[in-house]
Amino acid sequence: MLNWALTFLVVALIAAVFGFTGIAATAAGVAKILFYLFLVLFLVSLIAGLVRRV
């Protein structure tokens, strides 16, 4: 999932260089959503792993 976030970030940066502001904003928004989703899933799995050990 982090790969998708990074892919959309790269697409947003390339689109921003070429001046496609609508595409850049959309890709950046999707990248943000995927990044935060990845972060939440990581924290949940980290906590679940710590609980299992105890």
Mean pLDDT: 84
Radius of gyration: 15 Å
Which structural class is indicated by helix and strand composition? mainly alpha
Q: What does the largest sheet look like?
A: none
The total domain count is 1
* Helical residue percent band: over 70%
Share in β-strands: under 5%
In DSSP terms, counting alpha (H) and pi (I) runs of 4 or more, how many helices? 2
Descriptive report:
With 54 residues, the chain is mainly α. It has one domain (2-53). Helices cover 93% and strands 0% of the residues. The chain contains two helices and no strands. It has helices spanning 2-18, 21-53. Helix 1 packs antiparallel against helix 2 (21-53). The radius of gyration is 15 Å and the shape is rod-shaped. The two termini are 28 Å apart. The mean pLDDT is 84.
State the main characteristics.
54 residues, mainly alpha, single chain, rod-shaped
List the helices and strands and how they pair.
Blueprint: H1 2-18, H2 21-53
Short précis:
The chain is mainly alpha-helical. It is built from two helices and no strands. It is 93% helix and 0% strand.
